[in-house]
Amino acid sequence: MPRLDGKTAVVTGANSGLGYEGTRAFAAKGATVVMACRSVERGEDAADKIRAEAGGGNGDSDSDGDLDVRECDLASLDSVTGFADGLADDYDAVDVLCNNAGVMAIPRSETEDGFETQFGVNHLGHFALTGRLFSLLRDAEGVDGEARIVTQSSGAHESGEMDFSDLNWEESYGKWKAYGRSKLANLLFAYEIQRRIDAANREGDAPIDIRSVACHPGYADTNLQLRTAAESGNPLMKVGMRLANAVLGQDAATGALPMLYAATADVDGGAYVEPGGLMNMRGHPTIGRSNDASYNSEDASRLWEYSTEAAGVEFPF
């Protein structure tokens, strides 16, 4: 990773797992990291731990960037709006936005705004956040002259299927199918926003210097699996998840590498960064390809139109 002094990165879900490791790495390279967390208390605890590991950082040494913990609950569009408005008040630009936070395979529930939670948090919350931070991204110098939008997906996108007649799973619900759909939606969004940026740059006078990149971490040992087990209410599932994490999972720091690569390496807009090892579930980052459904431009456009209305966000193209 290059030095990131003077750069601002926003990371959702920054207090644990991949978000924590990404935050730690950005800060170690000198970036100011806005830690967008559902719980400010847990976010502050994570920030204190990063500062302690860095030797008392938070700007006190040449190698450590500032950490700014702020509340952002992706299950609440009002919270997303408040977070974005606060950033606009305090920051001139955002160089990197990592749409990282998520929930996985939980029993059906709804967000504050009435959307199925996995779809609402994993996709719609990040769609709204990206739209509301777009002007700050557009005003940034970026890592290499272009700001980055990095959207974290999952290999589970391959089991996802877009059903626009029941996006919120009101007719039927399968928690793993819903997770797969939300991760497919992440990719449809990541590629579609790049298409729209490219189209605007072909047609407009003022260039939009923003690059959208998708990624997935492989099988990383994080608390995402443990939360899935806890939500299931099945104690055997909790034991199974812990065992699977120990045997199959790579550590969270390695799992965060595709996100960091997507955010700072010389990759094309619309790229898909994934682990290059066994079954693309382990190892160091490489440029790969997601499944054919994720490149369906008709589905992407339809999802975009739905999301614009549902999230109440218009992108300034």
UniProtKB/TrEMBL annotation:
Keywords: Oxidoreductase. The keyword Oxidoreductase applies. It comes from the Archaea. Pfam families: adh_short. GO terms for molecular function: oxidoreductase activity. Gene3D superfamilies: NAD(P)-binding Rossmann-like Domain (3.40.50.720). InterPro entries: NAD(P)-bd_dom_sf, SDR_fam. This is Short-chain dehydrogenase. It comes from Halorubrum saccharovorum.
